[in-house]
Amino acid sequence: MKGFKKTAAMLIAGVMTVAAFAVPAMAESLKDMTYTAPSGYSSNKYDSGISQQQYTYENDRVKITYSDGKTSNADAQIYVSGNDWGMNKAIFPGEKLTSVRDKTEKQWKDALEQYLNNQNCTVSFKTINNQYEFLHTEVGQPAGDQTVYWDIYLYFDGNGNRYGFSYYSLNSAKPNQSDFDAMMKTVSFKYPAKSGGSSSSNKPSSSDVIKIYVDGTQVYPDADPFITNGRTMVPIRVIAEALGYNVGWDAPSKCITLTKGNYDVQMMIDSTWLTKYKNGQVSEYGQMDVVPCIRSSRTFIPLRAAAEAMGCSVDWDNNTKSVFITGSGAMG
Questions:
Q1: How many Cβ atoms are within 10 Å of 93's Cβ, its own excluded?
Q2: Which of 81, 86, 173, 293 could anchor a disulfide with 12, C-beta 3.0 to 4.6 Å?
Q3: Are 220 and 143 within one domain?
Q4: HSE of 156 in the Cβ direction (CA atoms, 13 Å)?
Q5: pTM of the model
Q6: Cβ distance 162 to 31 under 8 Å?
Q7: Sign of the CA dihedral with 7 first, then 10, 16, and 19 last
Q8: Dihedrals phi, psi of 206, to nearest 5 degrees
Q9: Any idea what the CATH number is for the domain that residue 222 is in?
Q10: Percentages helix, strand, coil for the chain, rounded to the nearest 5?
Q11: 210 and 107 both lie in a single domain
């Protein structure tokens, strides 16, 4: 870039482009990482002859001209990259990070905004398959008189290798993004990142970070938990999903709904009421000690109240600042 057109032009090993014909989903590999390419995409090798001028954006479609003269046209593009990707090399250059958590969300946001020359990108940590933690960013990047909509995941493994996964489109509706989301769930690494990151001086010390375990497995919310009035507040999604629940959000009513089968748990921002439903009928309701709130654009809810409402038990280890959630996650 400075701007994503430059970054896209530098490409990467393993580029997937929307094809005009369907092909079976296929496993791809890149260094010590594997993933499954979505159906309807074809694989192309990295072409060092691609330059910025060979990318054009017309009528909500992307046209790429390769050095051999061949072209591809698509509503959207998906890229999978390794260490040689320009964006990977340019952000925190020379640092052998072994987890995206080696940097804080703010450090990531500052670095990305400077690299993209764009102050409107969103940045958060996101755990996929309750196993791999990525840095997730979304941004609308000007490209002449149009806007390219990007959805990007970055991952640093335990050996310091850097990986990038990118989706982009000129269409704000983001066609085919479900293919990208499905592909991300198939990604696996030979050397997973160190749990919670390394001992980088930029990373909060372990004594400052509240750790959460669901049935013995550590999970990583996309924002750090905090304690208020003696209660641990968390962004609930990664915990609920580890227990088999879907998380719903209704903006007008500011209502959070956790759903599993015929069971629901509902809470509202700035309200102490918690309601449990079975088969669409109220089965139980009560009040929490603290209210759900929104902080830094994230919705936080009291962990113990939510976990117990989902049929689990909660234990706290003050020495390690750890929360242990156990149980089937079934509501009664």
A1: 7
A2: 81
A3: no
A4: 23
A5: 0.53
A6: no
A7: positive
A8: -60, -25
A9: 3.30.457.10
A10: 15, 40, 40
A11: no
Together in a domain, 172 and 259: no
User: Which residues lie across from 249 on neighbouring strands?
Assistant: 256
Rounded-to-integer distance, Cα 61 and Cα 76, Å = 7
Angstrom distance (rounded) from CA 47 to CA 12:
8
- pLDDT tens for the 332 residues of the chain, in order: 333 433 333 222 223 333 222 233 445 667 788 888 776 544 333 333 333 334 465 665 666 666 567 776 666 777 788 887 778 888 898 888 888 888 888 889 899 988 888 878 888 888 887 678 899 999 988 877 778 888 999 999 888 889 988 888 878 888 778 888 888 888 998 888 865 443 333 334 444 678 888 888 888 787 788 888 888 999 888 888 888 898 998 989 999 999 999 999 999 999 999 999 999 999 998 899 999 998 877 789 999 999 999 999 999 888 888 899 988 666 65
Residue 250 lies in a domain: yes
Q: Hey, which bits of 23-145 come out as E strands?
A: 26-30, 33-37, 41-44, 55-58, 61-65, 71-74, 76-81, 122-128, 132-143
What span, in angstroms and rounded, lies between the C-alpha atoms of 84 and 77?
Answer: 19
Same domain, yes or no: 33 and 151: yes
